[in-house]
Amino acid sequence: MEPLPNAAEGRLAEAVRRMGQAGFETALTGWLRRSVPCDNLIVLAYRDAGPPLVLYHQADDPKVYGQLDSTYLAGAYLLDPYHDLHQSRVAAGLYRMRDIAPDQFQRSRYFLDYYRNTGLIDEVTFVAYPAPGLTLNICLGRDGTSGQVFSAAEVHSAGRIAPIVTALAERHWSGLSGPAAPGAGRGDQAAGLLRAALARSHGIRLSPRQAEVALLILRGHSSVLIGLRLAVSPQTVKVFRKQLYARCAITTQAELFALLLPLLKSG
Fold first, then answer.
1. Do the beta carbons of residue 195 and residue 206 sit within 8 Å?
2. What is the pLDDT of residue 116?
3. Which residues contact 171 (CB under 8 A, 6 or more apart)?
């Protein structure tokens, strides 16, 4: 019987052969795009200190990664729901953006000022842990190229191959390492960066809780969701928000984002 040249299994075999060698990323991408058709793919390694490492990316539409260096890696990544998974140390496996995003994600400044400019309309991500302090994300996206979100069957297929994807990724990238942050894994790195940068650049001193609330607002969490996350009432969250805006001398979320993002870049 003649072998099937486009079979996903053949592409998986090539990825296995290339593991730990040059060409692995291309082989892995070939298998993933055959198994779960996508318009773009990126491999990021989130660290406990510093911006994520971009290990590989490919897109049919170059607009998807047009602001990757200038905005995302410069600081916006700290507001990404997938970075929040790194902070939380979730279990390895498959995660879909629409399932993990905050309840008001599409009203957040991160979404309005960055995410929607990428053209992404859906994402599924394989989360793996190749080394201490590192979270590897292999993100498969859909954008205007296809104009279609992932179907339930496609998400199911991605979930079935997730153990294979994470095992391959963890073995291939096991040699990665990143700088450790003081207190890594405890609390939110971005909140500490924000407090330090505001004090240094503007003389604005926020409490740890006010900084947490600021970041959760920008990530798209409602007062109810912030309250659940911080174990306080929505009314208390509104008090924190009012204090935050007063201390920063601002009145809108857009102003908060404009103040915050340059500081995260410099932090």
1. yes
2. 93
3. 19, 20, 130
Using pLDDT thresholds of 50, 70 and 90, give the confidence band for residue 1.
very low
Cα–Cα distance for residue pair 104/13, rounded to 1 Å: 42
Amino acid identity of residue 250, one-letter, is I
Treating both helix axes as pointing N-terminal to C-terminal, what angle do 208-219 and 223-230 enclose, rounded to 10 degrees? 140
Q: What pTM was estimated for this model as a whole?
A: 0.84
Q: CA 102 → CA 109, 182, 201, 218, 223, distances in Å?
A: 12, 27, 29, 10, 11
The H or E element spanning position 141 is strand 134-142
> Are 194 and 263 contacting, i.e. CB atoms less than 8 angstroms apart?
yes
pLDDT for 167: 97
pLDDT digits over 133-147, tens only?
A: 899 999 999 999 999
